[in-house]
Design a protein that fits this description.
Elements (H helix, E strand, L loop, with lengths): L5 E3 L8 H16 L7 E4 L1 H10 L4 H18 L2 E2 L5 E2 L1 E7 L10 E4 L5 H9 L2 H19 L4 H15 L9 H19 L7 H15 L3 H9 L8 E7 L10 E6 L11 E6 L4 H5 L5 E2 L3 H4 L1 H18 L3 E8 L2 E9 L4 H13 L5 H7 L12 E2 L1 H6 L2 E4 L1 E4 L2 E7 L2 H9 L4 E5 L7 H6 L2 E4 L7 H9 L2 E4 L4 E4 L4 E4 L2 E4 L3 E5 L4 E4 L4 E2 L5 H13 L3 E5 L3 H9 L5 E5 L1 H4 L5 H8 L4 H26 L4 E4 L13 H10 L4 H11 L11 H6 L1 H22 L6 E4 L5 H22 L6 E6 L2 H5 L1 H4 L5 E5 H9 L10 H6 L16 H15 L4 E5 L6 H9 L4 E4 L4 H15 L1
Amino acid sequence: MSKKWVYLFSEGNAEQRNLLGGKGANLAEMTRIGLPVPQGFTVTTEACIEYLNENKLTYEMIGQINTHMQKLEEIAGKKFGDETNPLLVSVRSGARVSMPGMMDTILNLGLNDQTVLGLAQNTGNERFAYDSYRRFIQMFGDVVQEIDKNQFEAVLDEIKEREGFTIDTQLTTKNLQEIVERYKEIVLAETEKPFPQDPSAQLYMAVEAVFRSWNNPRAFVYRDMNDIPHDIGTAVNVQSMVFGNMGDDSGTGVAFTRDPATGEKNLFGEFLVNAQGEDVVAGIRTPRSIDQLKNVMPTVYTQFAETAELLEKHYHDMQDMEFTIEKGKLYMLQTRNGKRTAAAAVRCAVEMVTEGLIDKKTAVSRVEPQALDQLLHPTFDEAAEKKAEVLTEGLPASPGAATGRVYFTAEEAKAAADNGEDVILVRQETSPEDIEGMYASKGILTARGGMTSHAAVVARGMGTCCVAGCDFVKVDEAHKQFRVGTDYIKEGDYISLNGSTGKVYRGAIKTQDPELSGNFGTLMEWADEFRTMKVRTNADTPRDAEKAVEFGAEGIGLCRTEHMFFDEDRIPSVRRMILSKSVEQREKYLEELLPMQKSDFIGIYKAMKELPVTVRLLDPPLHEFLPSEPEDIKSLAEDMGMSVEEMEADIEGLKEFNPMLGHRGCRLAVTYPEIAVMQTRAIMEAAIEVAQGEGITIVPEIMIPLVGMLGEMSYVEGIIRETAEKVKAEKGSDITYMVGTMMEIPRATLIADQIAEKAEFFSFGTNDLTQMTFGFSRDDAGKFIPEYKEKGILPGDPFASIDQEGVGQLVSKGVELGRKTKADLKCGVCGEHGGDPKSVKFFHNVGLSYVSCSPFRVPIARLAAAQAAIESK
């Protein structure tokens, strides 16, 4: 029996998302529950993969498309390609995962020079028929034949200007007929073939174009950014056309069951009277708010509100719906789970539990951990915003605050961002081609488009601040400027956007950190109920530590002592210590550093109270602390009574060919044990002082970096214990402490059972472990990793998300061997992998005790750890 490549909407359901794509599965489900859906059929994702392999539609596929078109003709009571009663269809892509604006829609397919006459006769509206035809030629030319749409727009603008019209609806039938002929000339000139008149040929070409678009560059970028596999393909939905542009009792719209920016429970969306679907999303006309539909078509509004509620209850989630009204009759074109900001995701999740729609477990599982990043970013300082000069106001399309320099193209925005600038991308309207520039920008400003335009949807998904539909902004891309009234803002000028109010300000505005409470706090409490793995933070200062505790950190997993050495008041002592000629001289300068290091640790212990703190001994190569500027070298030479030449020679002598694998980590403690002695003393004295002064229990965790051999571990552990016991005796303290190691050399993970004989805890330093396992330098890998990803050699950046097959196996092996020696061995991970949701899930599965990440990633790790615990049950 031949494979089934095509399904009628009435043959599928919501469970078949992988086969029918998200859109197809939801259309089938809406059909199943009896909603008014224009009928059609879906060509499957499997057909897409087959097409991409074969580079053509197979005879079997074409046969099934034709058979299903005949079935659709019976359902609709119209005939495809018929001159008197033509069936017209839309062709839309629909991948398994929603990819807004990435794949293009074709409306009115089936129109040609003959069927347009039938449509005019059937509807009694010749103007409408030719308007549909000119739209179809433009869409088909753009999407299928890859003709620059600006060529079509130019003809439209030229004729409107000639006739003195300002909007499309003023065009007469005669104007539209002229436009159709001019459009056909463009197609002929560009493709050297007349515009296809055979509706079946149009359909096959459109299906192939959707399949091909799966591999277009912007789709690739979106999938990479959102971790969507490249080999799942897209489905194609062929659906009977319903027309929203048949007069003032018709219209089209997009709506959400809740506000996608805030999560508030009320219908949110927009509609246009006498318009077709893409007009709303494309942002070509600025639409009206959905609540105004009550006044325009009260019966339709009531039916729509009831349908929206039914859909939300059916799917147990906020829905994003597209609808068309044809001569007073409502049709639902699609529904899907709505994209939303992090704030909206959290509010929806918490309120839906209160409403009894979902349970706590679902609420915790539903919020994307990475999305919380959006909630942790600054807003404008209120006083500074009040004083700022308002340039103009648009629609608050994606919340947040952004300040940056203005750029007018995606390429320029990306280049400026790569150079370290904060960028605001200003466009007439954005399109999927702008995706990389949007991703690189702090904020996006568009002159056209509504709350559901491309710019708004994509910005909300990325958590980027966006103000859309700024009618007073006149963009002049050619001269790299925009005008608001008589004010001109040029490329490179600063502006500020408030994506929560829609206000646009001249100049830069001071920002402030967000406050986290309410729904966010509730969701985090629920996450902590399910989570079994602890979350710590990487912090080197009391300020970082306090911020992390505010975000829910349960300790410090990595406190890097070297960052404290770079302070202005101590770098001279550090340099003198490094360049000392004898142990005695070195000890003298270490003596100067001791009270400074101790005060650092006192600050951190006070901030963390009784929470655990893991302090890593000095790790980087010593030459990193030495001066490179001639005046600094001269000043240090004078200070140490040396000649400049001698000083330069000493500095040169400390430089290394490959510092990452050089004289660093525990190797420093082996060659200069006095450094480890000073640091251990500072840690222990600080801990004892704070414990005694505050009446609390502190258990210092001292971590030896870069251990690869048991001998290194034994030697440095001996120095630490001898010094710690000495300090305890001097202070009359019975404080307990732990000595552990950073597992970052592949060899260490393979002999972890031996190292665990001396170590009381392991902390996997996955940044260095990744470097050494791959043989990649983290600082240089950026030059080739993007190519590796593009060519399918690497699935992702192993420094961003842990390589589970290689590096991950070393972590797993290290934990397993270590716990063979010590069953209760505490094993954690530090490094940015500790805040990456995919990596956190992996670490949970291999049994780590905790992850540690930067303060702003702590809530992300908490939620990811909870989701991992829920999934593994």
